[in-house]
Amino acid sequence: MSEQHPAPKADAARKAPTRRPGQPKSARRRSRELALQGLYEWLISAAEAGVIDAHMREQEEFRGVDAAHFDALLHGCIAEAALLDAVLAQHVDRKTSELSPVEHAVLMIGAYELKHCLDIPYRVAINEAVELAKSFGGTDGHKYVNGVLDRAALQLRPVEVKARNAQR
């Protein structure tokens, strides 16, 4: 997971449906993808959030994005980076600074959604992060992301996780 990856390029109901080939991506999924790209840029270059935001908005892919969710993710993750890393540090096997920038950014997005986006079921937030890792991360990065966010969910959304586990 510590290998470097090229820059990333490119909602669901209770159970995140699998998107069929040719089916358009949801506005939320697109916002996550662009926020991932912006966080990647921030982690690599330490550029100012406003500069990264402007750069992301210039992208053709920005059309059709849930702009409010994009803003929340990009600016929220940057503003709360130290807090999110403190949560993640309890569940990762190395310093967050040693993670690949893609997996680090994906984990930040997942942790942010778990912490702040209570309208998104925790399993959906985790699944969306896993999908980002599959699309943009290393070969098995999605497995790592899934494990870390599963453990983080128990800390960030204990009532929801315990209620779901009790239903099983």
TrEMBL record:
The UniProt keywords, alphabetically, are: RNA-binding, Transcription, Transcription antitermination, Transcription regulation
- InterPro entries in the record, alphabetically? NusB-like_sf, NusB_fam, NusB_RsmB_TIM44
Enumerate composition-biased segments (Basic and acidic residues): 1-14
Q: GO BP, one example?
A: DNA-templated transcription termination
Task: Specify where the region named Disordered lies, as residue ranges.
Answer: 1-30
Source domain of life is Bacteria
Function, as annotated? Involved in transcription antitermination. Required for transcription of ribosomal RNA (rRNA) genes. Binds specifically to the boxA antiterminator sequence of the ribosomal RNA (rrn) operons.
Q: What protein am I looking at?
A: Transcription antitermination protein NusB
According to the entry, what is the taxonomic lineage of the organism?
A: Bacteria, Pseudomonadati, Pseudomonadota, Betaproteobacteria, Burkholderiales
Q: Which gene encodes it?
A: nusB
